[in-house]
Amino acid sequence: MEFRIAVLKGDGIGPEIVAEAMKALDTVGEKFGHTFTYEEAPIGGAAIDAVGECLPERTVDICQGSDSVLLGAVGGPKWDSQPPSNRPEKALLGIRKELGLFANIRPARLWEPLADACPLKPERLKDGLDLVVVRELTSDVYFGDKSRDADGRSHDDMTYSPEEVERIARRAFEMARQRRNHVTSVDKANVLETSRLWRETVARVAEGYPDVELDYLYVDNAAMQLVLNPGQFDVILTGNLFGDILSDEASCITGSIGMLPSASLSLSSRGMYEPIHGSAPDIAGKNLANPIATVLSAAMMLRYSLNLPQEADAIEGAVNRVLEAGFRTADIAKPGDEYMTCSDMGQAICSEIRNG
Ligand code: IPM
Ligand code: MG
């Protein structure tokens, strides 16, 4: 089969990590007989430098003409003085909205070979750690009206419609059916009206999934439970802002934010795939980044958008074997231990894909 992939490398370490994910895709292609053709387009700071705007129309067009989108990361101090409407992060929000990517899937699991990179005491992990954050991605306070009054008082409008809650809730219940049949809906319904709507709507959707266990947590408690006993979670269903925060928390429990992939899905099969970490300007251009989150994002693309689950397994299996063999980038190496470069890690994963 032939697939057209839009490639948005972005800023900082973006180009380095995306290059390794493309190599992994090509290696899978050779092995299973697929061709991936890539069309690159600028986004974020790179786009500001090239054409003056963070999300050029041509970039959106290229994404819309693709089977799926692979993204690195955006942002960096160089563009901090841009007006809010042209910040690199704005491009990320813009492309999510333009492509209708309302469902952000962020799996966090403990990789056995990295168990000692986990900052929690071993007894906190007796029930393991294998959860997915299903985060709503195109609404909430991220996309509400923003304003500042003459006296400086500032506003960010937090909004949700029943339809927006319903479609993300369905995604979460469907996901739970593929996993351990358990959804935890996270909100702040003791304070926020949007959260009360969230809860009512999730309860209604749940009636269609009697086989899935549902419970609710307030977000402050959820943040605490995540570090006390992360093994109690299967699917965490939550809004845009809470999901942003909880997914960073979940990622660091796994040992490194450099390990976590994500998928952003729409109603069509086209999705956008990116690591959950940022552009890490401090290590950009040094061949030091961990490409694994991006490589695993490419695996999610194979699974969720291109319907190639065996090929996705091939990448994930290769990553596991590379870790088992003791290969480490700087972020997951023990202090004082040797570590490898970003491109060497990419290469190690590719040879494992070939041999697997
Ligand atoms: C993420 C990031 C983005 C977000 C930023 C860069 C706008 O933190 O993807 O989690 O808040 O969604
Ligand atoms: Mg975030």
In short:
40% of the residues lie in helices and 19% in strands. The chain has 356 residues and is of the alpha/beta class. The strands form 2 sheets. A 10-stranded mixed beta sheet has the order 2-1-3-12-11-4-5-10-8-9, sandwiched between helices.
Pick out its properties.
12 strands, two-stranded antiparallel sheet, Isopropylmalate Dehydrogenase, 356 residues, alpha/beta, binds 3-isopropylmalic acid, binds magnesium ion, 11 helices
If you had to describe this structure to a student in words, what would you say it looks like?
By secondary structure, this protein is of the alpha/beta class. The protein has 2 domains: 1-109 and 259-356, Isopropylmalate Dehydrogenase; 119-253, 3-Layer(aba) Sandwich (Isopropylmalate Dehydrogenase), CATH 3.40.718.10. Helix content is 40%, strand content 19%. The chain contains 11 helices and 12 strands. It has helices at residues 14-32, 45-51, 57-64, 88-98, 162-177, 193-206, 219-228, 240-253, 292-304, 309-324, 342-355, and strands at residues 2-10, 35-40, 68-73, 103-109, 130-136, 146-148, 154-156, 182-187, 213-218, 235-238, 261-265, 271-275. The strands form 2 sheets. The protein has a 10-stranded mixed β-sheet, sandwiched between helices. Strands 6-7 form a two-stranded antiparallel ribbon. Helix 1 links the parallel strand 1 and strand 2 (35-40). Helix 1 crosses helix 9 (292-304) and helix 9 (292-304) packs antiparallel against helix 10. The protein is globular, with a radius of gyration of 20 Å. 47% of the residues are buried. The model has no long low-confidence stretch (mean pLDDT 96). The structure holds 3-isopropylmalic acid and magnesium ion. 3-isopropylmalic acid (IPM) binds at residues 89, 92, 244, 276.
